[in-house]
Specification:
- The protein is 23% helix and 25% strand.
- By secondary structure, it is an alpha+beta fold.
- The chain has a six-stranded antiparallel beta sheet, with no helix packed on it. Strands 9-8-10-11-14-17 form a six-stranded mixed beta sheet, with no helix packed on it. Strands 5-3-4-18 form a four-stranded mixed beta sheet.
- Strand 12 and strand 13 form a beta hairpin.
- The radius of gyration is 19 Å and the shape is globular.
- The chain starts with 8 loop residues before the first helix and ends in a 5-residue tail after the last strand.
Amino acid sequence: MPVVRMMNLKELEARLQNLIEVDLLSVLPGRKIEDVIIQKLAAAIQHNTLTTAYASTAPDVFTLIMHPDTAKHWQDQKLLAVVLHSVMSVAHEAGLRFTIAPTVTISTDEKIPLNDAEVVASHRVEAMSETNATPSPIESENQEDNERIPENAFLIVEGVKVFPLTVNVINIGRRLDNQLIIDDPRVSRNHAQLRSIKGRFVVFDLNSTGGTFVNGQRTSQSVLYPGDVISLAGVALIFGQDNPPPRPDLKDTSPFKEGGVDRPTAILKEHSTARLPKK
């Protein structure tokens, strides 16, 4: 079997920029993508690739987090399709494979400067539901080396219990081997997973029966912000950071004030997600 050399970061950036510019010229003349986004996409591919003795697997979920005013210029599906096509092309040229068709999604955060973005890349976890969503040793090692756990993060479970988030991966469900066990018939045995990615917690639904919702909207994966209300088939969890409530037995718990309904939440919706059409 021929050995394929993995591109270094500069090669990934240069090739990704070339592919994007060519595609944009053909479908969206005059459009330009900021160099910083291309650089961060290339870095996300490199830093989140999982390598085994048999293959190197590229991340398949890309979320571009940007200021709401910047995001307005990214509503065109053709633009997202260009980015997705270029990411897939450069990954294949680098000798990487995908375990599932990748997606690129736009999310918003008012704290991100204009014409800048953060790129969160991860490997979809739906296929792990049968094995309790436990990451492979290589993936765990990659997370420990490259990811930091958000400080002072916690969940308030049903308004009465504070569950601190102190590890990279938290599996949630009825099964006794989950990190957070919720003994409620509405919750699936393996319902959801929280994963620390680039200093943020991301919630993933694990093909649950009742679904996972963030602020009332069903999602398969979503970046979490303080005050977000996660619902697991009706069981409420509130995500918070900084100092947890002084009384863990508090029975009347509502979302934090900064988590109002007008705050943009990084929910991965179909209308903002680019997928390549089937050939």
